[in-house]
Each structure stands twice: as structure tokens, then as C-alpha cells.
Amino acid sequence: MSLHPPTATDESIRFAYWVPNVSGGLVVSKIPQRTGWDAPYNRRLAQIAEEAGFDYALTQIRFTAGYGAEYQHESVAFSQDLLSATTKLKVIAALLPGPWNPTLAAKQIATISHLSEGRIAINLISGWFSGEFRAIGEPWLDHDERYRRSEEFIRALRGIWTQDDFTFRGDFYRYTNYTLKPKPVDPQPEIFQGGSSRAARDMAARVSDWYFTNGDTPEGIRAQVDDLREKARANRRSVKVGVNAFVIARDTEEEARAVLQEIIDQADPDAVKAFGHEVKNAGKASPEGEGNWAKSTFADLVQYNDGFKTNLIGTPDQIAERIVALKEAGVDLALLAFLHFQEEVAYFGAHIIPRVRALEAQRGRRAQAA
Ligand SMILES: Cc1cc2nc3c(=O)[nH]c(=O)nc-3n(C[C@H](O)[C@H](O)[C@H](O)COP(=O)(O)O)c2cc1C
């Protein structure tokens, strides 16, 4: 296969990486990791990623940890730092309603949009960690109420960003003739959201640009995509889809599987169990009992967002094939985590993205011929 395929087109699947702005990397394991959570490590990583062909970086928001991940840098400030260290990469900052309200978010993100010439986006978090909310004195709402608040948050944010004299009467947020100046640069910052429950899809179909979901098989993703698309169509909207995956690329599948086994064998059982206990407040607490982590096993929980389930574990050829299968299931963006981020992001850019682009071009030609 040619390793000099065409560059990305509008139809190409896009790549994002999880910013390790939290200690311990993206696995709840004591396996040695060369990933750092500090600013110098992350600036360098952002530069490597944009060179490697990544379009987005996603920062995380956490205020406490009861399950490893002891230290956490704040997402918006950290995102701005990465934007000033790069020139092409878009950075998605996570916002948690409660600590943030739309007023602060609209102002902060509008300023960063000017500072970065439009490279900032947001990821609206609806909340799953009740212990965190209790610790910081924030009321803990029921599952679907959290999404009702998030939806109002997004409606208010879009209103403030696009209208003068913005007036809004919600149950959670209220505005009267509010005019923000300056507004963000055009195009408006993209709005991502995380979560896999029915409430998450209902909200995405109504107000979000992107639906981020936990790791899953192409079949599991397709079921979510079908539901989301039907709901979005009913609202005359379209929503893009991003899926989490933990990548282990090695020369042979056996080597990659051995690394996975080692990560799981060295998992910190107390931290994994504490995490498993807390995530019961996510999808499982919804009326349907479905959503993020509703069916996760101990091994799944070793990666925070079920990233082993997506199975990007094997040789570069196998991984590229599986990414194209995700795309065919309706995925627009693969959100990736790695054990040793700097080295493995560079490797992904050199060995996997070119294979994905070549496969995409090949399938595009086949579809045209057919
Ligand atoms: C890709 C992705 C990123 C997320 N990032 C964060 C985060 O930074 N901080 C956080 O507290 N929750 C984060 N979440 C959690 C979600 O916002 C949500 O609260 C959780 O997945 C429960 O969703 P569900 O009940 O709809 O399944 C993330 C979820 C996904 C899928």
C-alpha cells in the first residue's frame, strides 16, 4: 500500500487526542507510562499532534478524584496554553455546568476565539461524578435533569454568541437584554458534548454540533448513530459523531495484545472499583439504564471511557481497517488515547493516518465505479 496517499478531504475521518492534563495518563493502571501531565510535555505533544495530522485536542475537566488521576490542570486555561503553542490544531475545552454558567463560558471562550483566531471549541459535560459535586458544594441533579440544564446552557451560550439584547427565560439560566462584545470570531466555536444515554442523544439532536461517545464496536456505534440521525432529522439538523478509542499499535497483533494485558494486569483494583462505583450515576442512573459505562466490565473500566472496546489494538494495517469500519458506521472523528502519548501520536501520524487515507481513497474510487 502506498504511504503517500491524498491528504484529508471534507469526507475524511478526523482525528483528535485526549490531552493528558490529568496525572496518571488515560488508564487506571500502575503500568509505567512516559506520558506527562505538565505544561511543557503537553505543549510539545500538541505540536507533534498537529504535525502528525491531528485536527483536534480535547482537554479534560475534573475538580477532584476518588479513583487515581490525582492532579488535574483546569481545562480552559490549559486549552489556551496549547493554542498559543500551536498554529493549526483546534482545542476543545471541557466545561461543567455548575462551576461554569453560560455567562462566564461565553465571555471566556469568545476571548480565546479571538486570541486563537477561531481554533477553540467546547465540550459540554453533563456530570457523572456525584462525589465531585458534593465536594465542591454544587447541587447534584438527577440524570435527565443534568441534561435539561446542559441543553439550556447550550441554548443560552449560542444566544449570547449570536444575538444582541439577548433575552432568555429558562429554569436554570436567565438573561435580559444582554449583549456580549466582542462575540467570538466566525465560524462560531463548535459545541461538542459527551455522554451515550438517550438523554444525551436527545440533547445532541436539538442543540449540539458533535456527539462524543465512549468506546464501542462498530455495531454499537451504528445503533447510536441511527438513533441520533433520526432524532436530528426530526429537528432539521445534522450532528457529527466522535468515538473514543485507546490505541495500541505494534508490529504484530500479539505484541499489541500483550501490552493491553499488561495494562489490565497492572490495574489498580481499588481505583478501578472506586471509578466503577461512581460511574453508576451516569447512563445506568437514566430511566432507560443505558449509556456510558452501563455494561462496562472491570477490564473496560481500566480505560476511563471504554476505549479498549473500540479495538484499535493490533498492527497499523488492522487499526487502519478498523478506523475505516468506524467511519462506515457513521463516525466522523476518532478521539484517541495512548500509553506513551508523544511517541505514539507521532507513530500514529507516520504509520496509521496515511493507511487510513489510502483506504478511504480506495473505497471512494470503488464507490464511484459502482
Ligand atoms: C469523549 C468524552 C469526554 C468526556 N469528558 C469529560 C470530562 O472532561 N470531565 C467529566 O467530568 N466528564 C466527562 N465526560 C462525561 C460525560 O460528559 C457524561 O457526564 C457521562 O459520559 C455520562 O453520560 P451518559 O449518562 O449520557 O451516558 C466525557 C464523556 C465523553 C464521552
Automatic annotation (TrEMBL):
Residues 15-332 form the Luciferase-like domain. Transmembrane segments: none annotated. It comes from the Bacteria. Keywords: Flavoprotein, FMN, Monooxygenase, Oxidoreductase. GO terms for molecular function: monooxygenase activity. SUPFAM superfamilies: Bacterial luciferase-like. CDD domains: Alkanesulfonate_monoxygenase. InterPro entries: DMSO2_SphG, Luciferase-like_dom, Luciferase-like_sf, SsuD_RutA_monooxygenase. This is Dimethyl sulfone monooxygenase SfnG. It comes from Methylobacterium adhaesivum.
